[in-house]
Amino acid sequence: MQSANVLLKKIVRSSVLPFAAQHGMKKDLFPLSRTLSLSLCLKQDNSCSPSEKIDLDAWKKVMKSGLQEVSETASERKELSTLAAAREILEMWRLAGRSVPENISEEQLKTFMECPSKSAKKKYLKYLHLKELYKKNDKRKMVERRERRLETQEQASNTDETKRNSFICLWASCMDRAYGWRVAQSMIFGQPLVFDMSYEKDMSVREVANTVRQLVLSEGCNRRSVDPFHIHFCNFKDDSLYHKEFMKHYREAWGKLLITVTDQCYTDVFPKDKLIYLTADSPKVMKTFDHNKIYIVGSMVDRSIKTGVSLARAKRLGLETAALPLEKYLLWNTGAKNLTLDQMMHILLTLKDTGDWKAALEFVPKRKYYGFVSKPVHELKKTLNLINTLKLGKRQEEVRKQFAKNYSKKLTQK
């Protein structure tokens, strides 16, 4: 009896199920299997009871599982065929000389296939290609650094040099403790500095990553300064792109940073009369650094240079604004007056320590200005205009005298 049931199962799975899946005979399959099983049972043993013959519910489960396996295998074959076709297209594009990555995963292939247009597919492949090149360059640099480190370790095999290295490590750990102690003191007694983290919607993913990189540099510069600020990240959300990028940079050290992170607005944390929003679009120029004020810097990197975004936000909140006096101290070249976040941190720390604008504005990139000026720019422009008019006047007189001489010579010749 058991051998007959096993044989019947094999026959149904090998012949009946594939035939039913191809021709859509799912409804008529179960009565056929029931009659087959009952007729075999009756022929072999007429004395067997109905409970010993066969369980129809179990047979239904077996038949359904077989049909599911057949449908799953068919869908897997379709996916594999589409993926293979996509890989062939990529190989054709690579042979044609287009920028295509060498290694591409199945998820990337699926996103490539989901692109709505051909131009979108090209852009996505170019992005993957550039990403792969960056990874290769990073690996090459890591290998070069490792080789240099090994060379320096081989050269520093003497005892004196090893003693120096141990002293340097001890000095570095002591300095880290000293920096941490300064920042801990600034959290209690230091002047607050606010970074506005509400510009995620105005930037792309790449611009957010650049912003976080500049903020990491700013935090390190502040930690190493003599009198650091108490940094506040306001309007900061845990599920934002800012948070994800910070976790990539700091990892486990993110929870140990001596800074204040809050999702509240700075107007809810500090009084409005003490807040000053630093923006390059402000009509007011910052004359001196005020130690009793709380300065706000917008955490935004915009390659398209969206003017007026931070100024509009400050006006909406009713805050005082200020801009750095770049034109007062620098002969400005062509270009926007927007600075990076780490440059702003260097400038503010220098102003806080010394109050010297020339020393602070040394951190402005040299390509953006010609040099420093001793007088205000509007006075220099007046003097330059006066010199130009005098030069033009002298030239006009010289031209008149030369014309008079030539005219007199012509008259004498006649």
Briefly characterize the structure.
This is tRNA methyltransferase 10 homolog C. By secondary structure, the chain is an alpha/beta fold. The chain has helices at residues 2-23, 29-44, 50-53, 56-95, 106-114, 118-155, 159-189, 205-223, 241-250, 266-269, 309-317, 326-329, 341-353, 357-360, 377-413; strands at residues 192-196, 230-234, 260-261, 275-278, 294-298, 320-322, 330-332, 369-372.
How many beta strands in the DSSP annotation? 8
Order of the strands making up the biggest sheet: 3-2-1-5-4-6
> What is the highest CATH level, the class of the domain at 185-372?
Alpha Beta
CATH T-level topology of the domain at 185-372: Alpha/beta knot
Looking at the overall shape, the CATH architecture of the domain at 185-372 is 3-Layer(aba) Sandwich
- Strand fraction band? 5-15%
Helix proportion: 55-70%
Uncertain spans, ≥5 residues at pLDDT below 50?
23-53
Number of helices: 15
Description:
- Its EC number is 2.1.1.218, 2.1.1.221.
- Its main location: mitochondrion.
- This is tRNA methyltransferase 10 homolog C.
- There is one protein chain.
- The protein is an alpha/beta fold and 414 residues long.
- Among the domains are: 96-158, no CATH class; 185-372, Alpha/beta knot (3-Layer(aba) Sandwich), CATH 3.40.1280; 375-407.
- The protein is 63% helix and 7% strand.
- The protein is built from 15 helices and eight strands.
- The termini are far apart.
- Mean pLDDT is 76; it is low at 23-53.
Topology:
Blueprint lengths: L1 H22 L5 H16 L5 H4 L2 H40 L10 H9 L3 H38 L3 H31 L2 E5 L8 H19 L6 E5 L6 H10 L9 E2 L4 H4 L5 E4 L15 E5 L10 H9 L2 E3 L3 H4 E3 L8 H13 L3 H4 L8 E4 L4 H37 L1
Helix pairs in contact: 1-2, 1-4, 8-9, 8-13
